[in-house]
Amino acid sequence: MGDLSEPLDGLAAATGESLNGLTRSELAPENSQSQTISADEIALYDRQIRLWGVRAQEKLRNANILLIGMKALANEIAKNLVLAGIGSLTVVDDQLVTEDDLGAQFFISEQHIGLNRAEAALPQIQKLNPRVALHAVTTSILLQPPEYYSAFSLVIATDLPLASLSTINSCCRLSLRPFYAAETFGFYGYVFADLIKHTFVIEREKSNVLTQLKPETTTRRVTASTTKKENGKLIELVTKEEIYSQIVLANSSPLPQFDLSSRRRKMNVTPLISCLRALWEYQPLVQTPYPTHSHADIKLFTQLATEKHKELQLPTETLRAEFLRAFLQNLGSEISPVCAFLGGQLAQDVINVIGGKGQPIQNLLLFDGEESKGPVYALHPIFAPLQGEANTGNGTDLLGVGAANGSTVMMI
């Protein structure tokens, strides 16, 4: 078993401040019994508590996470969350381990071929942190009623088509549970977040400029500002509220106006967004997960991607044949470093959300491993700007490449 006192794999990058004295909304189910962190756990998680505080660790201790799917990306998510010290993890997967699964997944081996993926992975996950309660569900998640999701603090769905993601997302909204979706395609991948309405706190050194309680974007507003003294410095605690959209709405929403405001910015938008939307439309049309290498499939996918690119008002020259070819060739494959990056980013975001601290993903992160870029686009149905809105630029880049407003998050 690994040393749990060591920092988590990349999760500390954006969570390095104490939560002492902050007011945070509860994410744990209403009927759960909150448990205070013990002295043994404080010693065990000492280094990460120094990074994000005892209160955040208590929130993690009481979190009950539902993880759907147990392929390579889910392996990374489960590893990071279990090492962080969540209360319980329920893994749902109705598929059996195959030889193909052995390439990038580290919780299974040849002896598990033919066994259920969730059940096969659980013993190895448990070794990472015996304090976490683990559960395996071997039936399809789509067989679960909407009320099933209310038992969890947060839901993460991996490697599923849009129709399934939309159904799960809707059930989470009925239960008022935050929802994440993610998948990798070789060198490419995405993370989507629907936190419904989320309140979080940003800690920063107090400046001479007065923080105004007003909207920052069409989805985010500043609701409160307080101060505290820490290590001889005056620290400002800024509370913000962010609203989100369902994945089915985000999939049909335009790009943020900021990204369409000039030709240069349009040229910087990754064509991966057009390919992802094309894939999501292709799947129900052909009833297969991915296009084959047949001429008919390639022609249909290219046509769909071109249509999506035009709908997004992007220059035709940015959807190059080379990119389409590379995307199609990567479909169906799992690459460990890509899964590690996206799984770490998603787990880090989950920890921030549970702790009520730090700006979460809003709302679609696209990762291009060929270019080492990870832009985030806020995709929402068109609606009138909030009164007093100061800034609609909300395209950021997790790797610091092509960031629309210059803000970055450290790469894991």
Strand order of the largest sheet: 3-2-1-4-5-6-10-11-12
Q: How would the global form be characterised?
A: globular
Percentage of residues in helical conformation: 25-40%
From the alpha carbons, calculate the radius of gyration and give it in angstroms: 21 Å
Which residues form runs of ≥5 with pLDDT under 50? 1-33, 388-412
**Residue-averaged pLDDT, rounded?**
85
The span between the termini is: 22 Å
Number of helices: 13
> Major beta sheet, specifics?
9 strands, mixed
The total beta strand count reads 12
Structural class: alpha/beta
List key phrases describing it.
nine-stranded mixed beta sheet; three-stranded antiparallel beta sheet; alpha/beta; disordered N terminus
What's the SSE blueprint?
Blueprint: H1 39-44, H2 46-52, H3 54-61, E1 64-68, H4 72-84, E2 88-92, H5 117-128, E3 133-137, E4 154-158, H6 162-174, E5 179-185, E6 188-194, E7 197-205, E8 220-230, E9 233-243, H7 247-250, H8 257-260, H9 263-268, H10 272-286, H11 295-311, H12 321-330, H13 336-355, E10 364-368, E11 375-377, E12 396-397
Parallel strand pairs: 1-2, 1-4, 2-3, 4-5
Antiparallel strand pairs: 5-6, 6-10, 7-9, 8-9, 10-11, 11-12
Helix pairs in contact: 2-3, 3-13, 4-5, 4-13, 10-11
